[in-house]
Amino acid sequence: MPKPLLLIATVALLAITACGRQSDAIVVIALHPKNPNILYLATNDYIHKSRDEGRTWENISRGMSHSRVIAMAVDPSYPATVYAGTKGDAVYKSYDGGQRWVPQKTGLDDVTITSVVNQLIFDPADSNRLWAATTMGVFESTDGGESWTKRMDGMKEVLMVVSLAIDPTRHGVMYAGTSGGVYKSEDRARTWAKANQGLIAPEVLSSSRALMVNSVLIDPKRSETVYAATLKGLYKTLDGARSWSRIGQALPDQMIIAIALDPSVSGTVYVAGRQGLHKSTDGGQTWRAMNAGLASLNIRSLAISPSDPTTVYLGTNGSGLYRSRDGGAVWEPVPIAVAGPQGSRS
């Protein structure tokens, strides 16, 4: 290769490296509940943190295993406490905003090798109580992750639990998205019952893999309204999962990978997958594509800012992180420029 071309190639390689491997998939986006400057990301390799709204980043994977992080949750009461769920190594917890991580495996030891922790959610009334959705079922901790207890009574047909949601007004009511549809609990996960009417065809209701539900979200303004994102379309209930209706059938891709609800406006829904982001402001009756500025339509993750719902973050499978400050109308790239060695900042 001629020297000028070699120099250009080297500069390009350094630029890519400086951007923190921008081609990595953005697997998880976790936002600080009170400070909009603080963001957490999990890629296929690292956890990253920004303290300045994405202008600079640091790797904060010190103390973690090499298992991939696929779930994160920031304690709403004590935001310096952060949890990470992994693919094959249970749960890790940080007490100092991600600078150091400690394993939280008691009660999960027997499933660690095969278990994937898909999601972590907090009890709105007590952040020391949380639940984990895993490929080996639902687990509950009442002591901030120190120990875990399996909560699968009534869920005998399935093992794989992908998503959990808890009613913000009636904390005993929970929903679980599983490989066999949706289950509902009215006693804080002590017992579960199928809630698949209209969601799954009657002839396959008994199947343990009748319908993979990727995400279950409760409308924060109307808790009887619940959305279920699946690998075969989007569903909605208006009566607390007594019955479901299919919505969004005009969406170009029925494999829904990510979904988010505007916490301030009932009926404003974002869904994403392999054909970009679409938004509805009428509870899923009509949809608009919202992809201006995106270099890739293959979307992996979504998050809405708790402090400003018009600020939305989007993670792709191949072109990094994006932010919109106008509810998804226009997107700008947020390069993952890592400053300093891993874990160097306090």
List the helices and strands and how they pair.
Layout: H1 3-18, E1 26-31, E2 39-43, E3 47-50, E4 58-59, E5 69-74, E6 82-86, E7 91-94, E8 102-104, E9 117-123, E10 126-134, E11 137-141, E12 149-150, E13 161-166, E14 174-178, E15 181-185, E16 193-194, E17 213-218, E18 226-230, E19 233-237, E20 245-247, E21 258-261, E22 269-273, E23 276-280, E24 288-289, E25 299-304, E26 312-316, E27 321-324, E28 332-334
Defining traits:
1 helix, 346 residues, mainly beta, 4-stranded antiparallel beta sheet, Methylamine Dehydrogenase, Chain H
Verbal overview:
With 346 residues, the protein is mainly beta. The chain has one domain (23-334): YVTN repeat-like/Quinoprotein amine dehydrogenase (Methylamine Dehydrogenase, Chain H), CATH 2.130.10. It has one helix at residues 3-18; strands spanning 26-31, 39-43, 47-50, 58-59, 69-74, 82-86, 91-94, 102-104, 117-123, 126-134, 137-141, 149-150, 161-166, 174-178, 181-185, 193-194, 213-218, 226-230, 233-237, 245-247, 258-261, 269-273, 276-280, 288-289, 299-304, 312-316, 321-324, 332-334. A 4-stranded antiparallel β-sheet has the order 1-2-3-4, with no helix packed on it. A 4-stranded antiparallel β-sheet has the order 5-6-7-8, with no helix packed on it. It has a 4-stranded antiparallel β-sheet with strand order 9-10-11-12, with no helix packed on it. A hairpin with a 2-residue loop joins strand 10 and strand 11 (137-141). The radius of gyration is 20 Å and the shape is globular. Residues 1-22 and 340-346 have low confidence and may be disordered.
